[in-house]
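Notebook entry, cofactor series.
This is the third protein in the set we're modelling with a bound small molecule. For this one the ligand is magnesium ion. I'm keeping the input format identical across the series so the outputs can be compared line by line later. Sequence and SMILES below, as received.
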Amino acid sequence: MSQREYHIVVLGAGGVGKSCLTAQFVQNVWIESYDPTIEDSYRKQIEVDGKQCILEILDTAGTEQFTAMRELYMKSGQGFLLVFSITSLSSLTELHELRDQIVRIKDDPQVPLVIVGNKSDLDDERVVSRARAFAVSQSWGNVHYYETSARRRANVDEAFVDLCRQIIRKDAATSTIRDMERGSRRQRDRPSHRHRTHHHRGHRGRSQRPQGISCSIL
Amino acid sequence: MSVVVMPPMTRTSTSSSSSYVAVSRQNTISSHDGRSARQSKRYSTALYLSMSAKEKDLEIEDDLARAQKIQRDYKAKISSQSKKNFVLEKDVRYLDSRIALLIQNRMALEEQNEVASHLEEASDLQEGFFPNDEKTQKYGNLLFMLQSEPRHIAHLCRLVTMAEIDSLLQTVMFTIYGNQYESREEHLLLTMFQSVLTYQFDHTQEYSSLLRANTPVSRMMTTYTRRGPGQSYLKVVLQEKINSLIELKDVDLEINPLKVYTSMIAKIEEDTGSVPEYLPKAVTAEQAAENEQVQAIIAPRLKMLMDIATSFLETIIEGLDETPYGIRWICKQIRSLSKRKYPDAGDQTICTLIGGFFFLRFINPAIVTPRSYMLIDDTPSEHPRRTLTLVAKMLQNLANKPSYAKEPYMAKLQPFIQQNKERVNRFMLDLCEVQDFYESLEMDNYVALSKKDLGLSITLNEVYATHALLEKHSAALARDDNSHLGVILQDLGPAPAQLPRKENRAINLPLFSKWETAIDDMTAALDITQEEVFFMEAKATFVQILRSLPTSSSVARRPLRLDRVAEAAATLKNDAVMVRKGIRSMELLSQLQDLGVIDRSDGFALLRDEVEQELVHLGSLKEKVLEETKKLEEVFRTIRDHNTYLHGQLETYKSYLHNVRSQSEGKSRKQQKQQVLGPYKFTHQQLEKEGVIQKSNVPDNRRANIFFNFTSPLPGTFVISLHYKGRNRGLLELDLKLDDLLEMQKDNQEALDLEYVQFNVPKVLALLNKRFARKKGW
Ligand SMILES: Nc1nc2c(ncn2[C@@H]2O[C@H](COP(=O)(O)OP(=O)(O)O)[C@@H](O)[C@H]2O)c(=O)[nH]1
Ligand SMILES: [Mg+2]
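Returned structure with ligand:
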């Protein structure tokens, strides 16, 4: 069986530790330098529940001036690691906007996602309580919440693996549906207005929006 | 046409720091030896003119004045247009967040209605007044204080939440300090920045997290860099480079070995139908990097990337003088704050932090997403986009200490870092070399106070929102109830609620201070002597006379003979103003002679030289003004285009919302028969003219026979069919859902393919909007 490839996007405010987390996960190194990210990509092969998969991980710019790039990431990503720092309340607040945007672009409130509260080693500088972060994760429909420390490499793998699992499950579910519908259903990611046959109008279940641009040569 | 001479503040250039700082003292620089004691206190003609309230007398009409008038108009237009855009952007952001809820079906009907009302009001505000004079006075006093004492707003900026900052910034950056080209307002705004930055440095523990987070301060910086001067700079320095890169649509400069390997395999498979055994599909980054073919592909790309990045860097470095004063000044603050906080910090540390502002927040965002900075018209295609991202990464690496642990392949670009590291550090330190503006600020404040009619154009809701924020944070802002701010706030009472958009009004609020009275006697205020004032007036008057006389006039010959100039003006026929000026200048000459300031026997050399220098300066000023006006014109055009783009976004949302609403309405009243609209017929030619058809494969001689029918069987659903004259059946039929079109538009997918022709998505939307708008939505 060929290995599946999954796209993960790491999002969150500037300076919360997205790059450090990613570097820890992918390369097992702790990076300490003032090095704001613009866009870095990584690849890692891991085994999840006995299955090999390849992860394409995109580490993004947290700086708000780069917001215009987000939309593209969100389109290409299948799972999202939303990172904040437990030492900054506003970094948690910023996640709401990101999540809203993901849901809008993916048109799917159940998109694979984990919330990560990083810098857990700085407990004496903590301003976001577990309870508070947990409340957010609940309000998003029981999204999983992890507290990590990139510095101590605590909980890093757990967060990423959880996300992988979600993506794998989702992927399996959609392929089943796809098989059932035998390709008659338009794929959301690539509106294919060039299709020449009339599409079967299967309802998508999660959205009331009608679908389908179809074009037929008469 | 006649114009008033510009006050000194508006004479400043948009970008050039040197002319910016020279504002109040440009003429002191041309001092003569031996008279320095007096000259250190000499101020510019322009300052004098602005102090003098007798503006009517100062009307001059020459080429310079006309050029300046045009320039001023552009500046005003840019200021007001960028405010409009800011407001629109806010609306778009708001709707962006609402749309997510709509998709999740989580929005209650009432909220849908609210969102709709958000969209429906007229965008142009009506003029209005405060309900009563007392309010006008009190708010006039409050706003005067906020404008002249930036510390209050600076303090407020640190207290507000991210949710509150937008409304505050709108008022602060586009209204209170909204004149983007007036140095006084600019300086006050920068003073506010300084206070906020200082606070941030004082309250950040670790150097590594300095200036990294998104805070009200960073939002402030973004907003600031996007005002007129920052926008001009990006245009002048980057636009051409970016555009020429974008044109190379097919040039792939990917250097990530994995990606290169993958596309190489794909290409081999496409070309030969299979992939040889020795090239496995899945490889590790190391394997990909070791592959010789991959290396061969990457090597020339590295060179090209380094060449491109170097050329970007060179334009940026050459653009030092174009860099807006305010941006450089912020760099300077970062430098001095870093030095204060980390006394042992070397240049590298300081440059890292400056780079964290200049490159990370100003230059690189524009390079990676040029469209949102209005530098290009269309979203770049894949390859150029990646190239731009790589260039930005290289520039950022140059500013910071890159860690190649992250992406090992970037290490191949090290030669670029080595060759340019020192250069870029020097550049960043050079950026900091601008003068402070304390002196001129102080001066400008006097000038402001001496103006009798200081006013602010502001909306009621801006006033109320600012009031509400001040009230909310009053405990921290006015700890002492007897502070001026405390007194005013108490006086004002509770802040009124925001008015519905329809009732919001633009008002002209006269500003004044309850505590300070306008300065009548400038000499006392500025601590200058009577002879200074006479000297300044004399110089100003002679300059005016000479600017008004034809250049061919015999008295305009150098060296000037001031007594003759005065006489020529005083005896001019049919020009009472000139005659008055002539007489006045004669008086001034003799008064200054009596005071021993100038000497008739050396031809009033002291005054004469200064007048001549001023004229030379003004002559070259005209060139500068013309040149700058050209840039402003372009900036204005861009900002206006951006406005159109934003309106388009809003339209998109509007239609989407209407669509959702009419559908849920449809659901609740299923029985109601839906009326089919159309078909409406359009010819090929018509649609081509309107830009709906952006590309056509139909041969020219056949086009006349092609037509289209548009029908809407249900709200939000359309059928477009393509017909050939004389044939019964259509050639092609297209089923369209409105929301899919909207989605395409959001995704910047502009082409809708119909085999024979290609439609332009936004134009199709506009057409459908016009034709099929049902009473309640589509
Ligand atoms: N104490 C602590 N510091 C961290 C941790 N993760 C990141 N940092 C620091 O936070 C700063 C920003 O990290 P970075 O990964 O660049 O943030 P990003 O902007 O989200 O990518 C760096 O100085 C890191 O050293 C962590 O788990 N604990
Ligand atoms: Mg990062």
